[in-house]
Design goal:
4-stranded antiparallel sheet
């Protein structure tokens, strides 16, 4: 079974929590030597260790197919679901939480501009009337919060695996992603009527200037 990472910016997040956890560990060590409050110092060290280690299970979570099952992690806890229970897949813009900025689209440089990173959101069912709200990953998760299975940065190798598997639901592609990644998507899907392109154009489509 080939596994794929769910998050896009893994290294920066890993470093952030390691550094933050290390700060609390350091404060705890200093507290043992300089303060007459060993309980607080030990608590600070324990909190630092937890802060440094536990988020890594989420940051480096992976997902993949094994037989007729989708295996993934939710908050670091292993989960699985039968492919026949996945009612739909939404391909949209991958956005992520950036400190002091909130949720912003993840991009990469191309032709002097910025192109969007794609996301995949797997759902138990999809109300097609709500798709116009789903231009980004976070918007899709909010719109279909009760139907959510898991979400991740899109790996086209996984998408091809899923398409050729026992999964029989529809694949919904936002127009921005369909246009930006048309050659790769056409190679996987051809003219399959299970693939639906829905209309929601984010600001700056399909590229945003620096």
């Amino acid at each position: 079974m080939k596994l794929y990472y769910k998050m896009y910016r893994r290294k920066p997040n890993m470093i952030f929590f390691l550094v933050l956890g290390g700060i609390f560990l350091g404060l705890g060590v200093l507290g043992i030597f300089w303060l007459d409050m060993p309980g607080i110092a030990i608590g600070c060290m324990v909190f630092g260790a937890v802060l440094a280690v536990v988020p890594q299970f989420v940051i480096f979570s992976r997902y993949g197919l094994r037989g007729e099952w989708l295996r993934f992690r939710k908050w670091g806890i292993p989960k699985k679901i039968e492919l026949e229970k996945i009612g739909g897949v939404v391909l949209c813009i991958y956005d992520e939480y950036r400190r002091n900025k909130g949720y912003v689209p993840a991009t990469f440089s191309v032709n002097g501009g910025q192109a969007y990173i794609p996301a995949i959101v797997l759902l138990r069912s999809v109300d097609e009337g709500e798709l116009d709200l789903c231009d980004t990953r976070s918007a899709t998760l909010i719109t279909f919060r009760k139907e959510r299975i898991t979400d991740a940065v899109l790996e086209f190798a996984f998408l091809e695996e899923l398409y050729k598997s026992a999964f029989a639901g529809k694949i919904y592609v936002s127009e921005s992603i369909a246009t930006l990644y048309k050659p790769a998507l056409d190679e996987i899907f051809g003219n399959d009527d299970r693939v639906v392109v829905y209309d929601r154009l984010p600001k700056g489509f399909p590229f945003t200037k620096k």
